[in-house]
Specification:
4 helices; 35% strand
Length: 329
């Protein structure tokens, strides 16, 4: 691993790593750049081996992405753990889909994410974690700051809500099934892509229209909020290219697919979730929202909601509702 990373002189743009190790991998602790191409990490093993980024920092420029494609996992007694990294993106200063972090997981299982920080790393219309028919995923101690173009005005957000609402409500963690189009079509033609079926745009391998939704998902001890600071490209160029993102993404949820996930959400803070002044009743804009819920399958407790917008009649468990969602306790 260290030899491969050294050969790229710490700019990992254009590098594809396929990891199928029976033992854990520890990255050399460094500051890495991801620019002039994507870094793609394919995780294909099922041994429960960990990926420890060893407190490394990744600067993602306006011409790169940090992409993980996962079909791996661990065992019930030995979870695969991905941990210890900070990602500075440039999503606020690029077109959608550039300067971002993105993990697509297809039918993976028994995975633990912890001690990961994201700053300006989520593009509008995309997800940090896109989960399709996965099982037993734990997110612990995430710090997620910033979402959307820098300085989005009220008018900008209202226009987006009218023209492309998904750009606003795209979750940081999307909980989904493995159906056609669940990952969009981004990167389907990439010859290194272990997720997509090349013959059908947007169709994941082993997709199933009756696929179960991702389930047994836990989000705890995490923070989602705004970001003001230097973007990844600024870090690369040693310039103060700033993001002033007054909002965070909706944190976790589903807005498509079938079936009801089992989800536990506790001891998190959700601050300044993005919204449109055109509506307070669209549950998809609440920090927690799930489509087609069952009342005893979604559990949220001890969460802190700061400066949120919504309608109390749409908050919490609602009988005969298409969504269960929270913007307050």
């Amino acid at each position: 691993m260290e030899k491969v990373l050294k050969s790229h002189r710490n700019n990992l743009g254009g590098l594809t790593l396929t990891i199928d190790n029976p033992s854990s991998i520890v990255f050399p602790q460094k500051v890495y750049k991801v620019t002039e191409g994507n870094l793609v990490i394919n995780l294909v093993g099922s041994s429960g081996a960990d990926i420890d980024f060893n407190n490394s920092i990744f600067y993602i420029g306006i011409t790169g992405n940090f992409l993980i494609r996962m079909i791996s996992g661990g065992e019930s007694s030995n979870y695969e753990t991905i941990k210890n990294a900070s990602f500075y993106g440039s999503a606020s200063n690029t077109e959608e889909g550039k300067g971002r972090f993105g993990l697509n997981a297809l039918k993976a299982h028994n995975v633990h994410f912890e001690y990961l920080s994201f700053y300006d790393a989520q593009s509008m219309g995309y997800h940090l974690f896109d989960l399709a028919a996965v099982d037993n995923f734990i997110f612990n101690d995430l710090e997620v700051r910033g979402f959307g173009k820098a300085g989005l005005s009220s008018l900008d957000r209202d226009r987006l809500y009218k023209s492309n609402p998904h750009a606003l409500y795209s979750e940081a963690i999307q909980v989904d099934s493995a159906y056609e189009g669940c990952f969009g079509t981004y990167g389907f033609s990439d010859s290194t892509n272990i997720i997509f079926n090349k013959e059908k745009k947007g169709l994941p391998k082993n997709a199933d229209s009756k696929s179960k939704i991702s389930t047994n998902i836990t989000l705890k001890n995490s923070y989602f909020g705004p970001y003001t600071g230097v973007i990844g490209q600024g870090k690369i160029d040693n310039e103060r290219y700033m993001a002033r993102q007054y909002f965070s993404a909706t944190a976790i949820g589903s807005h498509s697919g079938t079936g009801t996930p089992k989800v536990t959400i506790m001891d998190n803070t959700f601050e300044n979730t993005i919204y449109s002044e055109l509506t307070t009743t669209d549950s998809r804009l609440y920090p927690i929202h799930f489509r087609n819920p069952k009342l005893d399958f979604i559990y949220q407790s001890k969460n802190n909601f700061i400066n949120q917008h919504g309608n109390s009649k749409k908050n919490g468990y609602l009988l005969n509702s298409r969504y269960v969602a929270w913007y307050k306790n």
